[in-house]
């Protein structure tokens, strides 16, 4: 009783459901792998793009006459702060800081920080004339920052450093936005895959006469049992004239006539031309009570063409021995 319950408790899925699930799984895996790779590449590209942005802004800003004058003339510091805030607003960066050679901030988005030393401990190389980008914790939070030395155009001596930064949190937001769009595209790409899977499953099921594999297996077993129990010989060919079905009775009759070679997949016109099955197929007709002599063995036959979906598929013949 328990075995019976276990067998009935096993959930079975139809062929259509299995095809849909398998196709959707393949599409999902393919889209997921592609989306992950594209998202990773987008994230990398976004970070590089933002890094190039702060680098370009810092380089251009460090060469500005307003910056150079602000570092050499204390009377222009107020104008320098105003100019810095204007550029910062237009370029949408988090901050632009101008430092003198004592590492004192001459500009800052927060006015209270002006006149104080730069925070981050990553600015040292910039005061040695090097240009680079760095990620460090500052007064506004962790940021990606570019450091560009500022030189006096006349003496070519270094007079300060410009630092332009974007908060890491904002960089991550930009990365997440780009990744979200990629994943969203992957999701919408899955919809045609599901539609295609349903269409494919329907076509496959329709081509199988809406039968399940188990039902087809049962039909084949039933067919074999019927063919084996029939006393008359049964032989069928496909549309190309190849023999595709021979029951046991037909095999014995052919062997009795001296044809010991297996008839399956033989060309009927060459193997047993006496039965004219190929002509029956071409002319789409029925031939009853035909007397055929096969190697001096008298046989009676009946032949007819078989139709499937409004087209001639093949023909079959019934063979009976004559006493």
Could you please describe the fold and organization of this structure?
This protein has two domains: 10-208, Beta-Lactamase (2-Layer Sandwich); 231-321, Beta-Lactamase, CATH 3.30.450.20. It contains nine helices and nine strands. The protein has helices at residues 2-9, 15-62, 65-72, 77-91, 168-207, 213-229, 248-256, 268-271, 277-283, and strands spanning 95-100, 132-138, 141-151, 158-167, 233-238, 243-246, 286-294, 297-308, 311-321. The chain starts with a helix and ends with a strand. 23% of the residues are buried. Residues 4-9 and 308-314 have low confidence and may be disordered. It comes from Alkalicoccobacillus plakortidis. The chain crosses the membrane at residues 20-40, 180-201. It is found in: Cell membrane. It is a multi-pass membrane protein.
**Major sheet: size, sense and barrel closure?**
5 strands, antiparallel
What would CATH call the class of the largest domain?
A: Alpha Beta
* Beta content: 15-25%
Based on secondary structure, the structural category is alpha+beta
Helical stretch tally:
9
Secondary-structure element pattern, one letter each: HHHHEEEEHHEEHHHEEE
Could you name the CATH topology of the largest domain? Beta-Lactamase
Keywords: ATP-binding, Cell membrane, Kinase, Membrane, Nucleotide-binding, Phosphoprotein, Transferase, Transmembrane, Transmembrane helix, Two-component regulatory system
InterPro entries: PAS, PAS-like_dom_sf, PAS_fold, sCache_3, Sensor-like_sf
Domain PAS: 219-254
Pfam family, one: sCache_3_2
């Amino acid at each position: 009783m328990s075995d019976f319950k276990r067998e009935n408790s096993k959930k079975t899925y139809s062929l259509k459901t299995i095809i849909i699930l398998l196709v959707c799984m393949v599409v999902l895996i393919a889209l997921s792998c592609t989306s992950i790779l594209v998202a990773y590449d987008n994230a990398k590209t976004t970070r590089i793009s933002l890094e190039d942005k702060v680098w370009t802004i810092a380089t251009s800003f460090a060469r500005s006459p307003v910056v150079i004058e602000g570092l050499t003339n204390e009377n222009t510091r107020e104008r320098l702060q105003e100019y810095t805030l204007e550029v910062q607003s237009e370029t949408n960066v988090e901050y632009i800081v101008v430092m003198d050679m004592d590492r004192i901030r001459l500009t800052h988005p927060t006015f209270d920080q002006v006149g104080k030393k730069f925070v981050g401990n990553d600015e040292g190389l910039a005061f040695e004339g090097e240009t680079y980008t760095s990620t460090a914790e500052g007064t506004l939070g962790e940021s990606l920052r570019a450091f560009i030395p500022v030189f006096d155009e006349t003496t070519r001596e270094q007079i300060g450093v410009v630092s332009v930064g974007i908060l890491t949190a904002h960089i991550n937001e930009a990365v997440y936005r780009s990744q979200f769009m990629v994943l969203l595209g992957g999701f919408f790409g899955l919809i045609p895959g599901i539609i295609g899977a349903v269409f494919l499953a329907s076509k496959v099921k329709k081509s199988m006469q809406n039968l399940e594999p188990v039902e087809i297996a049962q039909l084949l077993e039933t067919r074999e049992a019927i063919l084996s129990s029939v006393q008359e010989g049964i032989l069928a060919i496909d549309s190309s004239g190849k023999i595709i079905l021979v029951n046991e009775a037909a095999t014995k009759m052919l062997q009795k006539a001296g044809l010991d070679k297996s008839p399956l997949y033989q060309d009927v016109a060459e193997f047993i031309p006496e039965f004219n099955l190929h002509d029956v197929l071409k002319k789409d007709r029925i031939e009853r009570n035909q007397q055929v002599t096969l190697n001096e063995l008298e046989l009676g036959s009946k032949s007819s063409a078989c139709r499937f979906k409004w087209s001639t598929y093949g023909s079959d013949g019934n063979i009976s021995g004559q006493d």
